[in-house]
Amino acid sequence: MTDPHREVAGRAAAGFQTVYGEPPAGRWAAPGRVNLIGEHTDYNDGFVLPFALPLRTVSAAAPQPGDRWTVWSELTGETVAFGADEVATPGRVTGWAAYVAGVVWALREAGHAVPGARLAIASDVPLGAGLSSSAALEAAVLTALVDLGGLDLPTEHQPRLAQRAENHYVGAPTGIMDQSAAIRCRAGHALFLDCRTERVEHIPFDLDPAGLVVLVIDSRAPHRHVDGEYPARRASCEKAAALLGVPALRDVPAADLDDALARLPDDDVRRRVRHVVTENQRVLDTVALLRSGQARQIGPLLTASHASMRDDFAITVPEVDTAVDAALAAGALGARMTGGGFGGCVLALVQADQADRVATAVMAAYAERRFTAPGLTTATPSPGATRLP
Ligand code: ADP
Ligand code: MG
To answer: Which pLDDT belongs to residue 5?
Structure first.
């Protein structure tokens, strides 16, 4: 089999050679991710279950003297250079290079002696499709700098640092899931993450032996003006937790849901709470099934998660509902939107021998509704950030 990462790794190394006139000292790869189940549970201190994709971002890197960092990305063809002064002040380095400066900033803030470095970035992770190209970029840069500098930063502490880069330097308010997935996932496993404690557990999710594939369908839904929706959902959840007298909705067990709902005054808030509480339970149920080797059986949980996002959390759009319905009608074992909502990707758990049939059905349903054709790929649970040989 050809190694699908060779190409992107080769492009990063060749880019390094062209831009800097010498070969890199090494190459580090970090994956995009999809979330198998557990949506809008992260900021409610709950559970998520992402796995890493075979799509990766690769940084080719070598040390350079002094506190200087230079980075080139194949994506833009730009080379951006910055020093300690620019790094010290969030906002000084802007655009895509802010993710790189942010990682240097977060490492220095945490007291690490970050080596000066030259970097060249190439990536197969599509940007802004909900597959977390930003965390892949952060992780590919972070692991390169940690290795080049011999920094004492255990893997379990790296996601928090990459998240700080994105929250504080770039200024994007994200949870801990994306960076945890990019750094800590393992091949053939999903990453069960408790967003309150940041405890992780690797849950077997090896599709091949089970005769299964996960189809990832990029809904290509046009951007709708939904910027206020995410903060609105968060605010509803926080309001509900306060009304119920708990630190977060994570603290409402599924068994107490009816009691909790009876104590809430507003139907919208009740529906938001029902989504979060049942979704946390679905993550736990999915983990239990996967632990006992019953990957096929998780299908109904995925589909129930979609219904909950559609009916209770109200974050789906016609394109993703169409993809889910068409996949299920064509024999998918389960299907759901993945990611924050209002577009992004759908994943479908499918018997391997049905994958073509399901893909064709989704394409046909899209064509019938005159939606922009969806993107289709299969996702094999892949490793987190690694140094390439
Ligand atoms: P997502 O993480 O869902 O793909 P984000 O908006 O969080 O979307 O992050 C996308 C941003 O990350 C891009 O706009 C760009 O600034 C940066 N980025 C990601 N990958 C690369 C890359 N290979 N080269 C340059 N910038 C990148
Ligand atoms: Mg992102």
So the answer is: 57
